[in-house]
Automatic annotation (TrEMBL):
It is found in: Cytoplasm; Endoplasmic reticulum. It is an enzyme of class 1 (oxidoreductase). Interacts with EPRS1. Interacts (via DRBM domain) with PRKRA and EIF2AK2/PKR (via DRBM 1 domain). SMART domains: DSRM. Residues 437-474 are annotated as: Disordered. SUPFAM superfamilies: dsRNA-binding domain-like (SSF54768), FMN-linked oxidoreductases (SSF51395). Residues 369-436 form the DRBM domain. Its EC number is 1.3.1.91. GO terms for molecular function: flavin adenine dinucleotide binding; tRNA binding; tRNA-dihydrouridine20 synthase activity. CDD domains: DSRM_DUS2L, DUS_like_FMN. GO terms for cellular component: endoplasmic reticulum. This is tRNA-dihydrouridine(20) synthase [NAD(P)+]-like.
Length: 492
């Protein structure tokens, strides 16, 4: 049997289960504070992760995996590095390995989701759909065990018969994985169905690797002592807690559950400190409040439309202001550093004409933009259409674009919040330096061909929106070129 290079022990552990929309960084850190030994991130799909670029966020002291649309798909930090397990959804061994290699230096383990019964997972052959394809399971796990330096695990549900279940888990064990988590329900069963402690126990008695029992929140786990009782009932090595931890992460605390108000405030502090999106923060807090959602505080939470408003609803307005000031100061300090201090070569901007300008949509008619004006001028002058080169600054994820027209480059010195806005600013620099009209309201300009209305986030004539460049990565294109909510995990 192949044995991977292990650095994470799965024996005798309290584990935060992977939960969609819940298992983000603030919840994982909170669970660790309250006594969890290992924390799993929410299931992240391989195809989405393969689009991400790893970015060191110096402002937050985190490592971010950022999608082309600038969304942080996975964020982690040093505090959890040796105890966080990355769970992915996959149906392909090579993609799984590529993702594992992308994240392996920032996590303690790699897990494959083979238990989620939700359609968003199973329709792609992932999650519980893998249970009907043992050959694919074996290929994915064997490839990961051979190809990554981190311990590999998987999380499954039980099959219709004990015989089939034991046959599958023995085959899984032979791939060389470090441990297996077992949710003691069948694929079609939900939390209201009883968890099969006897089948988890049979699996634990059959295998030599650690078995992690999961699925006890509904029937068995209401307080910390219940976790050990569930472990003994299943003869498992460790216990993985989902819903009970989502409702109150202090379930891991030996001293007993902490007051919910205290737990929620601590969660909010982590959410602000690590710039968690307010919609995710709000969702997790709603799961904790549960039947108290109609309380005065619950109504304030429901009405909140920003992290600041969430903080104010929980008496943390001053904390929010102080923390955001600290982060802004840190950001300004880093932005003020020279390229030499940042360890980057100074950019050669020789020959680039620069102005400090920004595009303001309100200053232009609905169907006119500077890029349109520049393109029309180039056509009249029989010049090659403008080419835009856009970069994104990793530190604050702002954009700067340079446009080339007739072999001359033009650029705004002001950075913009989107790629499209940065391109409009570059076009303004070119037009103004040439003394050309840019299409502003009240400005005399040559007639333009009528086009579909262009917004800062959509180029005219493009079939769809183009994803912004990866942080720090150059993106070139001619002007006219191509431009879910998941429910909380079910019974995991």
């Amino acid at each position: 049997m192949i044995v991977n290079n292990l650095s994470l022990c799965y024996q005798n552990k309290l584990i935060l289960a992977p939960m969609v929309r819940v298992g983000t960084l603030p919840m994982r850190l909170l669970a660790l504070d309250y006594g969890a030994d290992i924390v799993y991130c929410e299931e992240l799909i391989d195809l989405k992760m393969l689009q991400c670029k790893r970015v060191v966020n110096e402002v937050l002291s985190t490592v971010d995996f950022v999608a082309p649309d600038d969304r942080v798909v996975f964020r982690t930090c040093e505090k959890e590095q040796n105890r966080v397990v990355f769970q992915m959804g996959t149906s392909d061994a090579e993609r799984a390995l590529a993702v594992a290699r992308l994240v392996e230096n920032d996590v303690a383990g790699i897990d494959i989701n083979m238990g989620c019964p939700k359609e968003y997972s199973t329709k792609g052959g992932m999650g519980a759909a893998l249970l009907s394809d043992p050959d694919k399971i074996e290929k994915i796990l064997s490839t990961l065990v051979r190809g990554t330096c981190r311990p590999v695990t998987c999380k499954i549900r039980i099959l219709p018969s004990l015989e089939d279940t034991l046959s599958l888990v023995k085959r899984i064990e032979r791939t060389g994985i470090a441990a297996i988590a077992v949710h003691g329900r069948k694929r079609e069963e939900r939390p209201q169905h009883p968890v099969s402690c006897e089948i988890i126990k049979a699996i634990a008695e059959t295998l030599s690797i650690p078995v992690i029992a999961n699925g006890g929140s509904h029937d068995h786990i209401q307080q910390h002592l219940d976790i050990e009782n569930f472990r003994q009932a299943t003869a498992a090595s460790s216990v993985m807690v989902a819903r009970a931890a989502m409702w109150n992460p202090s379930i891991f605390l030996k001293g007993g559950l902490r007051p919910l108000e205290e737990v929620m405030q601590k969660y909010i502090r982590y959410a602000v400190q690590y710039d968690n999106h307010y919609t995710n923060t709000k969702y997790c807090l709603c799961q904790m409040l549960r039947e108290q959602l109609e309380s005065p505080q619950g109504r304030l939470l429901h009405a909140a439309q920003s992290s600041q408003e969430i903080c104010e609803a929980f008496g943390l307005g001053t904390f929010y202001e102080e923390t955001t000031r600290e982060l802004d100061a840190r950001r300004a300090e880093l932005l003020a550093r020279t390229p030499e201090e940042l360890g980057e070569p100074a950019e050669d901007s020789s020959g680039v004409i620069k102005m400090a300008v920004k595009f303001d949509r309100r200053a232009y008619p609905p169907q006119i933009t500077p890029k349109m004006c520049l393109l029309e001028w180039c056509r009249r002058e029989k010049l090659t259409q403008p080419v835009y080169e856009t970069v994104q600054r990793p530190l604050d994820r702002l954009f700067c674009s340079t446009v080339t027209v007739a072999e001359q480059k033009y650029q705004s010195t002001l950075w913009d919040k989107s790629k499209k806005l940065a391109e409009q600013s570059a076009a303004i620099v070119c037009l103004r330096s040439q003394g050309l009209p840019e299409g502003r309201l009240g400005e005399e300009s040559p007639s333009l061909h009528k086009r579909k209305r262009e917004t800062p986030d959509q180029d005219p004539g493009g079939p769809g929106s183009q994803q912004p460049a990866f942080p720090g990565e150059l993106c070139k294109k001619p002007f006219m070129a191509l431009e879910s909510e998941m429910s909380p995990l079910e019974g995991r």
